[in-house]
Amino acid sequence: MSRDPLIALRPWESPEVTSWGRLPMSAVDRRAGALSLDGEWRFQLLPSPDSPVTEAWSSQHVPGAWTLQDTDDLPQYTNVRMPFAEFPPAVPAADPTGVYEREVDVPAEWAGRRIVLQVGAAESVLLVHVDGRPVGISKDSHLAAEFDLSQVVRPGRRATVRLTVVKWSDASHIEDQDQWWHGGITRSVLLYATDPLHLADVTVRARLDGELRVECRVRDAGGALPEGWYVSGELDGHPLTQDEEFDRANAEDERVSGFLGEALIRATVPDVRPWTAETPELHGLTVRLHRADGTVADTSYRRIGFRDVEIVGRDLLVNGERVFIRGVNRHDFHPLTGRTVSYDDMRADLVLMKRFGFNAIRTAHYPNDPALYDLADELGFYVVDEADIESHDHAHEIADDPRYLNAFVDRVSRMVLRDKNHPSVIIWSLGNESDYGANHDAAAGWVRRHDPTRPIQYEGAAKRGWADPDLASDIACPMYAPIEDCVAHALSGEQTKPLIQCEYSHAMGNSNGTLADHWAAIESTPGLQGGFIWEFWDHGILQRVSDGRPAGRTGAGLYDNGVAAPGHRWAYGGDFGETIHDGAFIADGVVFPDRTPKPALYEHREIAAPVRIECFKHEGIVLGNHQHFRGLDWLSGRWELSLADGRTLTAPAELPDLRPGETAAVPLPFELPRDSGEAWLTLRVTTAQDMPWAPRGTEVCAPQVRLRADAPVTDAPVTDRPVVVDAEGLLVHPLLTAAPTLSLWRAPTDNDELGGMAPRWRAWGLDALVRKVVSVHRDGDGVTVLAEYAGTVGVVRHRQVFTPVEGGIRIDEQAELPEEFDDVARVGSVFETVAGLDLLEWFGQGPWESYPDRSAGAPVGHHSVPVDELFTPYLRPQESGGRHGVRRFTLSAPDATGLAVTLDAPRQVSVTRFRAEDLTAASHHDELVPRSGCVVHIDAAHRGLGTASCGPDTSLSYRIAAGIHRWSWTLRVL
Ligand code: GAL
Ligand code: MG
């Protein structure tokens, strides 16, 4: 047995032990003025925590995960299941343990001061030694641990700090979140000093009406507090004083000993500018702790916001308003450094969220770096702060296991203690996917007493029944509930709590179908208030293909626009040789691993539009302000009129002065040209000034209304230009390398695969239909071709009628799907072109990718995009690059030659360098070899995307029925 007591205790197998020698958590921020211990540390990776430390040191950068820094312990991805078989609280004997060591020169001027070591985060057990002496133990991988070193180190001397980090522990069983497993010290390490007399904690309550209470907890390292200390404060430069009434009451209270260091500052701030996510008004609060002679012993500075959060009936109110929660779940993630994220990275995440209309973040599934909350306060987000508890694989056993009781209360209370002063935090979450048991109620009870100002949510409790009056969830916060169920609950008369989905619209691959339908229901149904999209990130780790290792910190710049540089790829589960893993399920975010937005974000941006076109009436365009707290003065507008004849007209727009919820009619900015065909009016809304999250002129939304429907044109047949087909009835055309044939298959999306559709389609043989020509019938210059496409269980009859028309060929198609082929991926034509046609121009929805159930954010207009940029490089290749509502398009070479297609109705079209079979065969984007020509799909019907990889499939209206489908298109040469 080891002689080191921290090792001999075997704390990694003792859930009751949550810490030893660790200081209580505090909301006082000590980052400013601290000595950073970040940088290179001596390092060795032991096979288990009780293996002897050797002389074989290498080095590691702190903060960072050793799993990403050239050790043999590589990242592993699992969703629900634990990566090992041991039952909680046990762990495998092989338990990678990182030993970090470095010297620290303790400043001489710290003599007489209290010296504290702070380790920002360590996974999953931290053991601290200084100069060989045991100092402390901590668990709770995503919160800082502090240790008082005053008695251990000597100012002016050098000390050796050793941080031993054990990867697998009893705590791993409650840190079983759906993410990569790593080991290491993932947040900064620092050393700071305070006066022995110090502010141990500060609790701020700042209300909408200007009432301010600042509770101070004062301690002295020497034990008893010195006589005569007092606190003072300053808000935006205005002095605040200690509340004597509170002191008197304390003095008279027999239960309060003289030892108690509590003081209160109370003030009423007149004309306070309230904080909301739309108006993140912050005020600077300085709290000073004075000695009896007035000198300052300690100071705490923070920015605070005045706001109220409450639940009234079934509404969650912020400052009295029922706000919509347009949320997203965010993990700490970086493709090179894993859970180690810099301030700049966090800021970039939040800036992007802001630009795409999000106003809320759930810190799935653990407390984030402290800077994230500062940024949320500053940029304006409502935060659901979630404790680091997920016991997914052993949820039922652990929720009521008294051995884990301490850990539950410890984790929830430490989060609340740290983050309680952030105006952005409006809800506490007890964790994720850990069933529901007495351990949760214990934690909830602690929160209710310590912070009665915020609601609590916990999905595991809400699961028991959305209206259940349980102790642990004030909010009905289900995950992936179908829209119909939410609406039915809100209409049932049974609803008792606000319904805000903690996760919905699973963003895996090409997804987020029906997002607009969700929001149509939310905005029109009292009781529904929004939700948090799952999730922000695709957690692809940048990997070198040559040796399969993570690129790590040296990989900066080896990716662009969502794509890894040649020789690299975005690794997902299984790519590091793990045998137990959950594949690409880790790639389920609205941004690529390098934060490049996926097209789904544009959908969200439009759905969240602060200003909207309500309708077009004879008196003009009715605009509405859909914000909760501010006018439209921070926005500017520009009208854009897109006409089917090819023209786009623009005009400046004057946005009316509208308060939240108001509407007003503005005159139609254009005289509608006659004979211009279909006409669409778009309001391009941009920021009118520089915002902290967007420079002036950044587009915020582009609401649109149709002013005139199309007038269908039929091409008159011409003679003397006979259509040529071969013996198989396939069109012969100089620009086509593969003639138009019928397609019912798309490269399965993750939703298609995991939702069970793709396996069914494969079983029907839709990926390999066998075409057989039945007849080729010439009628003058035209040709009618009948063919059959046989699957394994049914045959589709397909007819193409080719008619020469002015400048080209009209193709009228009909496909008759047998009963067996109910609910297919698409019904349409596919053909391939010669090389060199590299630009797609179209009139239809765009410019970004859109699908039938994800098209609210793609306005109709004239768009032009190089073919190579049409495709979206989802990590696992799948159907991608589609454009919805296309009326006509051209595919051209730089010399303007090429082809033009006119469609009989707005259709789903895709133009890519890949056949559906190319995409289906590849598992990673880097395996794809682009074809030189274009693969063009024109779909009479295309199935919606839905979210069935985790959650509801697309709704019935976006599915494709068996029976007869007809479509026509005209092909011309430019
Ligand atoms: C939820 C879970 C998330 C994630 C998601 C699927 O059940 O809370 O952590 O696993 O499903 O991607
Ligand atoms: Mg889970």
UniProtKB/TrEMBL annotation:
SUPFAM superfamilies given in the database record: (Trans)glycosidases, beta-Galactosidase/glucuronidase domain, Galactose mutarotase-like, Galactose-binding domain-like
Pfam families: Bgal_small_N, Glyco_hydro_2, Glyco_hydro_2_C, Glyco_hydro_2_N, LacZ_4
EC number(s) from the headed UniProt entry: 3.2.1.23
Domain Beta galactosidase small chain/: 717-972
Catalytic activity: Hydrolysis of terminal non-reducing beta-D-galactose residues in beta-D-galactosides
UniProt signal peptide: none
Entry-linked PROSITE patterns: GLYCOSYL_HYDROL_F2_1 (PS00719), GLYCOSYL_HYDROL_F2_2 (PS00608)
Keywords carried by this UniProt record: Glycosidase, Hydrolase
A GO MF label: hydrolase activity
Superkingdom of the source species: Bacteria
Stated family: Belongs to the glycosyl hydrolase 2 family.
PANTHER family: BETA-GALACTOSIDASE (PTHR46323:SF2)
Name of the featured protein: Beta-galactosidase
Organism encoding this protein: Streptomyces yaanensis
Top-level taxonomy: Bacteria, Bacillati, Actinomycetota, Actinomycetes, Kitasatosporales
